[in-house]
């Protein structure tokens, strides 16, 4: 039995007329009649009661019609799903993100994917840049949102956006009460909260460039990975912290964010294992290049 036998049978069952069914199938009537006879012989059942004036389904034919439709629907759905997977429109994408990406970038990506790639499920996991690099190299995640530059021959990256740094101060700090931006050198005698270098060298180096530009070595009294943690430590009076501008989405009592008088920036990138050829990764990167990256540049 072949699928065409089921298609021919269903068409005759719907028309109850071999001539009309043949016309819809764009074949002549004799071959159609022969195909139905072959199907009946193969199954050893009678699907139609035929007379010179009419064609009727047998009870057996009615049962076979119901099952045949289900079989063809299942096959059609399987073909559509397979084609969707091949186009990268169906599947699961493991997306890692870190730090400030959660505040504005990640929600934008999720909303855009839900709208334009509704059959892709995003499996989100929060990792530092260093953790993302290892996970990408080991193919445990598909795409990462991290801070570049990174050093890995296994990973490709593409710039997503640049983001300025701001300084988070206690609201009682003298600089917090001043109007306008501040000069980094004015922070030389402060106690600092810093992310550990192990969390991501690109992010760590970008902050250190601010200190180097201002000409001082920071007095680091506490390290912390997460933006919420660092800002909370500022509110508790532990020290001050330099953070990406999107961290200003965190609103806590007792803190103030201040701009610098110079454009200190970090680079956010998308990253993926260069050997990963999964269609869903290709579709996601295409969406990032066409929608998300232009939005932030």
Description:
Strands 3, 4, 5, 6, 7, 8, 9, 10 and 11 form a nine-stranded mixed sheet that branches. A two-stranded antiparallel ribbon has the order 1-2. It starts with a helix and ends with a helix. It is an alpha/beta fold and 297 residues long. The protein has nine helices and eleven strands. Helix 7 links the parallel strand 7 and strand 8. The mean pLDDT is 92. The longest helix is centred in the N-terminal third of the chain and has 28 residues. The chain folds into two domains: 82 residues, Arc Repressor Mutant, subunit A (Orthogonal Bundle); 211 residues, D-Maltodextrin-Binding Protein, domain 2, CATH 3.40.190.290.
Number of structurally distinct domains: 2
**Radius of gyration, CA atoms, in whole angstroms:** 32 Å
In the CATH classification, which architecture of the largest domain applies? 3-Layer(aba) Sandwich
Helix tally? 9
Percentage of β-strand residues: 15-25%
């Amino acid at each position: 039995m072949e699928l065409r036998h089921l298609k021919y049978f269903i068409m005759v069952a719907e028309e109850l007329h071999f001539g009309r069914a043949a016309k819809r199938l764009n074949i002549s009537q004799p071959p159609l009649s022969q195909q139905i006879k072959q199907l009946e012989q193969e199954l050893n059942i009678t699907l139609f009661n035929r007379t010179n004036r009419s064609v009727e389904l047998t009870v057996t034919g009615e049962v076979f019609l119901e099952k045949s439709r289900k079989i063809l629907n299942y096959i059609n759905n399987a073909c559509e799903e397979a084609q969707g997977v091949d186009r990268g429109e169906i599947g699961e994408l493991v997306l890692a993100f870190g730090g400030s990406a959660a505040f504005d970038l990640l929600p934008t990506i999720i909303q855009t994917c839900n709208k334009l790639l509704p059959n892709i499920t995003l499996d989100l996991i929060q990792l530092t840049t260093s953790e993302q690099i290892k996970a990408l190299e080991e193919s445990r995640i598909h795409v990462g949102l991290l801070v570049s530059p990174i050093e890995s021959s296994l990973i490709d990256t593409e710039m997503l956006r640049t983001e300025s740094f701001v300084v988070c101060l206690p609201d009682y700090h003298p600089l917090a009460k001043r109007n306008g931006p501040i000069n980094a050198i004015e922070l030389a005698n402060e106690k600092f909260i810093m992310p550990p270098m192990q969390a991501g060298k690109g992010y760590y180096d970008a902050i250190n460039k601010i200190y180097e530009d201002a000409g001082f070595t920071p007095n680091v009294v506490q390290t912390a990975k997460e933006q919420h943690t660092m800002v909370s430590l500022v509110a508790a009076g532990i020290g001050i912290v330099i953070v990406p501008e999107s961290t200003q989405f965190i609103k806590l009592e007792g803190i103030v964010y201040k701009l610098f008088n110079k454009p200190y920036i970090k680079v956010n990138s998308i990253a993926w294992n260069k050997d990963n050829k999964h269609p869903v990764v290709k579709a996601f990167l295409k969406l990032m290049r066409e929608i998300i990256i232009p939005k932030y540049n």
